[in-house]
């Protein structure tokens, strides 16, 4: 693969405002919980407690904030049914469904490479500890 030339017209050249808007969108999608919530909603609407059970480790407060943020950004709809007790369903919007391909690609990549990354982290940490010990020996020998 070789790099290709991208012709940026005046309307597509990055500006501070464009970069900020893009960054905000990416921050929403790539935060700690949004990818999981989007992935859980891929098969259709879910109730709040269903999502809470399926997204391991998320607190009620964080799920509420995540769903609210996704709803604000137009990625999730919230439908309330007038039943007793009230029933609320969350569902991906059409725009968010277009995000499923890339999101699920990232999720699958992380799943396929988690052991490799864990091993790389372990080696890095071991080397860092060895390097720290060596630096400390040099420091004390110089004193």
Could you name the key traits of this structure?
elongated; 143 residues; 2 domains
Q: Can you describe what's shown?
A:
The protein is mostly helical and 143 residues long. It has 2 domains: 10-98, Winged helix-like DNA-binding domain superfamily/Winged helix DNA-binding domain (Arc Repressor Mutant, subunit A, Orthogonal Bundle), CATH 1.10.10; 104-143. It contains 6 helices and 3 strands. A 3-stranded antiparallel sheet has the order 1-3-2. The radius of gyration is 22 Å and the shape is elongated. The model has no long low-confidence stretch (mean pLDDT 84).
What's the total number of strands? 3
How many distinct domains?
A: 2
Question: Number of helical segments?
Answer: 6
CATH class of the largest domain: Mainly Alpha
CATH superfamily of the largest domain: Winged helix-like DNA-binding domain superfamily/Winged helix DNA-binding domain
State which percent range the strand residues make up. 5-15%
Largest sheet: 3 strands, antiparallel
Mean pLDDT, to the nearest integer, reads 84
**What strand order characterises the main sheet?**
1-3-2
- Rg (CA only): 22 Å
- Provide the helix percentage: 55-70%
